[in-house]
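Minutes, project check-in
Item: structure for the 237-residue chain
Input as provided by the requester:
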Amino acid sequence: MKNLFGYSRVLAVGDVHGMYDKLITLMDKVRFHPEEDLLLFLGDYIDRGPASDKCLQYIFDLQHQYPDSVVCLLGNHEVMMASYFMQKQGSYNNLIVDYADSWLDNGGFETLRQLNELDADKRDELITWATNLPVQFQYQEFFFCHAGVDPDVPLAVQSEFDMLWRRQQWWEQYKGEETIVVGHTPIQKVKKQKGQIRRVIKPLFLPNHVIMCDTGAYMQGGKLSCVDVLSKKVWQQ
């Protein structure tokens, strides 16, 4: 059961990027309890890895089975996918239409092939779901989004662009009281020691209330990570 203060664990999963085997093994390790836990996926379920279709289906099923305990956020790769299909259909959206040409060059070609092998109704269901997810979520003092925030702007008025795409060292400049929990930027590209990419591949808990959960699941030597933001316990595969 949930404790008196809310969920027993608030679990944030970094960018999956089509790494289905890692996702399944990680979830076995985490042992998600929907009656007690809140589970959040931080976006970028597709592209780069070998099984984007299976990742979409698994996360889709999990959220629909436990809608009160599973939150799925939009990532920039889902934005690129949405842009591609909207352009194909001749519809437009100012947020995403500019990224149609980027998707296939960023892992989308294989994702598209996998989706086209699905039953048409199932394919359309997954695409519609994945491209209409929320951009942000807040629980108590924790603010979740895919990419980052503008450190000079209050959280209540953050732009969707920043929450989906921002890098630009924002994590070094943030001075807010809320804890920002994100994926998007692999920690291998964030923290270096003596000029070398750090060899300990774990989520970063920065002292200025920032938790970075993307540990480069699709990269050579990378891992898929889940963080309990309450206890700071980490599970990896």
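Outcome recorded: The longest strand covers residues 9-13.
No further action items on this chain.
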